[in-house]
Amino acid sequence: MEKIDNVCREKVFNQVFADNAKDLFNFLHFKYQDEDEAKDVVQEVFGKLWDNCKKVTIEKARGFLFVSANNLMKNILSKKNTALKHQPYLKVNERSTENPQYLMEESEFKDKLNWALQELPDDQRVTLLLKRIEGKKQKEIAEMLGISEKAVEKRLFKAMNSLRQKLGNIL
Amino acid sequence: MENEELIRKWMTDQLTEAEEKRLKDTAEFAQLQKIWDGLSVATPPDYSVEEELERFHSSHNKQAKVIKVSWQLRWVGVAASVMLISVLSFLLLRPSSNQTILLSEGLKAHYLPDSSLVTLNKGSELSFEKEKWAASRKVMLQGEGFFQVKKGSTFEVATSNGTVTVLGTSFKVKQRGDYYEVLCYVGKVGVETSKQNLTLIAGDGYREFFSQEERFQAASNSEPEWLNGRSSFFRTPYYAVLEELENQYEVVIETRGINLNDTFTGSFPNEDLNLALDAVTMPSGYLYQQKDEKVLITGGK
């Protein structure tokens, strides 16, 4: 039997890429709000995984990727002098049946919501968006972030609570 | 907030019906619901796993692989990369409407514009004209490729030795020097060479080399074995087997006292040179010596 418990074989490696790249990207994007940098960091951590493929088993790969990606991203952003390019998380639906007044209010609400999201602490924002946009289960989020399920629940609550306070006047 | 417990349960879908009622009566619930709904319409940014994987392989992977080979080979690799980059930039940057796409990264699946899938063996190249794709699905192949074709208009694989035409099926085409082989795994394919014009059904193979041509029946695999790290042969002339060995391991093979037209049936692994050499020499009682990238195979006494 051939050993396939590490990720050195290209087929296995590609599978690990397919299974994790998007989650990694979303995680980095939601947490650090920099889409382009997130894409590059995903590339880089898979490079690290490839270089260390003999030492990393398939089961350990996901954990390895998330921890390395988080560290790398933090590192890169701390060295960046420029302000973050905030990309809006939410886009306004274009529903032609709605009347203009409603659309305007809706778009104002989305703008404010975007702003409030950007103001959230990184950990709270990433937790909330993984849950609400990616539909991840509590358990999955806990694994991705390396925290307990209870902590996920707590962060979700804190995030919603502070969004509510920030948006209080237009809700 | 006093309703923290309820809200936490609400966000993680753990509310009972009674609790849900209680929560809905609270003052803040309408606000929370509006935020929650507002978040749902968010569209995550585009992230194409396929594109990113392609990007990964075209940059990082090559360098990583070179590390495993010797110093001389490393320079060959660097030179080859430089050449590849120049060829690619020539092909991709020239201001023509007939953009030619060149795929050469081996052992990995490439999607063609119609989402047909092609996997190339090591040392193989595929090109096609993107602009013309909608009108005719035609690719040029050098080396060996396994194709899984989406149903649709005619799909053509052209090589210097012949052309394969299909409608929707999977098959492999191998062209190395004068050796040409087509093996059909699913469906039906048409093969046209200077010598023959024939149709293959699943399990049928056809090959030409030197002046010979033959049809053969292959084992009932659903894909070539090189997708799983082995090179496999069925009554294949020995010189073609050695060529594949040279291609897989980037070695140069010399032979003495061997009839290169004898046929070989069997397989060798693509990741262990010594095992592979054993596999191709032992059945015939040949001997081999190997030093760096040079291999000498000699006939028995």
What does this structure look like?
The complex is a heterodimer of chains A (171) and B (301). Chain A is an all-alpha fold and 171 residues long. Chain A is built from 7 helices and no strands. The N and C termini of chain A lie far apart (62 Å). In chain A, 33% of the residues are buried. The mean pLDDT of chain A is 82. In chain B, 30% of the residues lie in helices and 35% in strands. Chain B is built from 7 helices and 18 strands. In chain B, strands 1, 2, 3, 4, 5, 6, 7, 8, 9, 10, 11, 12 and 13 form a 13-stranded mixed β-sheet that branches. A 3-stranded mixed β-sheet of chain B has the order 15-18-17, with helices on one face. In chain B, strands 14-16 form a two-stranded antiparallel sheet. The radius of gyration of chain B is 27 Å and the shape is elongated. The model of chain B is unreliable at 62-70 (pLDDT under 50). Chains A and B meet through helix 1, helix 2, helix 4, helix 5 and helix 7 of A and helix 1, helix 3 and helix 4 of B.
Q: Specify which chain pair forms the largest interface.
A: A-B, 47 and 37 residues
Strand content of chain B: 25-35%
Low-confidence parts of chain A, pLDDT < 50 over ≥5 residues?
A: none
Helicity range of chain B: 25-40%
What is the number of beta strands of chain B?
18
**Uncertain segments of chain B:** 62-70
What is the oligomer described by this structure? heterodimer
The helix/strand order of chain A is HHHHHHH
User: Helical element count of chain B?
Assistant: 7
Radius of gyration of chain B: 27 Å
